[in-house]
């Protein structure tokens, strides 16, 4: 994609996935769109300027803090994109007590192109589609091996999605025999042109064998079958070069700003 197309795609992503987010856990309040999910709370869109930013930040801190409706304590994320306004929004968040986590690259690829990638499972690897708690436990085991940390909130969120709206999430685990060695998921918002790719971590001893590429192509085929034209990823520095080789383009940078009270 050239720069002009990427800019149009980014504007569409903002309009559909962020500003136009839908679902029972989405709320529009003042100048922000926020979510309260099992295991995750945050602001995903804001329409602010120099005159409104500080008051809106304070309002969200009050909502998600001790007097708010966060289901699991006073912790939430402001998902900042570097093209958000005002230009000094990051500094205002820091001044309000937010701490930035590592930046990620917002990337997008065409589902049809990625679905056509010539990919075969590495020897000894099979893919398991997750539909229940036992499968989610396998996903979490692969995730823990890949990233070296336990994140129970991810399990809570995925279980809630499978329970409440199974069509909105696809989860797959790469199995080496009976051992989960990699996992990934895809979230699809009804009516949106974008499906979000999440996870994609592989156990260290299985890296470099094409499993990550396999999981991208697998999810791309599902998205293409469901008529979703684009795949979106918040890519780490490790994932970005792989995704660029697969044909993903860069839309910008996103930084999670965390408030812990």
UniProtKB/TrEMBL annotation:
InterPro entries: Acyl_CoA_acyltransferase, GNAT_dom. CDD domains: NAT_SF. Keywords: Acyltransferase, Transferase. SUPFAM superfamilies: Acyl-CoA N-acyltransferases (Nat). GO terms for molecular function: acyltransferase activity. Its EC number is 2.3.1.-. It is an enzyme of class 2 (transferase). Residues 126-261 form the N-acetyltransferase domain. It comes from the Bacteria. This is GNAT family N-acetyltransferase.
């Amino acid at each position: 994609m050239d720069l002009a197309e990427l800019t149009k795609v980014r504007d569409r992503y903002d309009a559909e996935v962020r500003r136009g987010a839908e679902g029972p856990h989405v709320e529009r309040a003042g100048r922000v769109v926020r979510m309260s999910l099992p295991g995750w709370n945050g602001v995903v869109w804001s329409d602010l300027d120099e005159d409104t930013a500080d008051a809106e930040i304070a309002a969200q801190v009050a909502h998600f803090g001790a007097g708010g409706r966060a289901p699991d304590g006073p912790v939430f994320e402001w998902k900042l994109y570097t093209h958000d306004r005002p230009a000094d929004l990051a500094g205002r968040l820091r001044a309000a007590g937010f701490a930035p986590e590592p930046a990620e690259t917002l990337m997008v690829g065409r589902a049809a192109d990625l679905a056509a990638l010539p990919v075969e499972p590495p020897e000894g690897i099979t893919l398991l589609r997750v539909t229940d708690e036992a499968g989610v436990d396998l996903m979490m085991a692969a995730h823990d091996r890949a990233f070296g940390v336990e994140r129970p909130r991810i399990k809570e969120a995925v279980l809630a999605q499978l329970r409440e709206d199974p069509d909105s999430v696809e989860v797959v685990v790469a199995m080496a025999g009976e051992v989960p060695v990699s996992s990934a998921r895809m979230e699809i918002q009804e009516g949106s042109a974008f499906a979000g790719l999440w996870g994609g971590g592989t156990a260290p001893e299985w890296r470099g064998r094409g499993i990550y590429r396999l999981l991208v192509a697998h999810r791309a085929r599902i998205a293409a079958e469901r008529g979703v034209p684009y795949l979106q990823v918040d890519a780490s520095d490790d994932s970005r070069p792989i995704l660029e080789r697969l044909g993903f383009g860069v839309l910008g940078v996103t930084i999670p700003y965390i408030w812990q009270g």
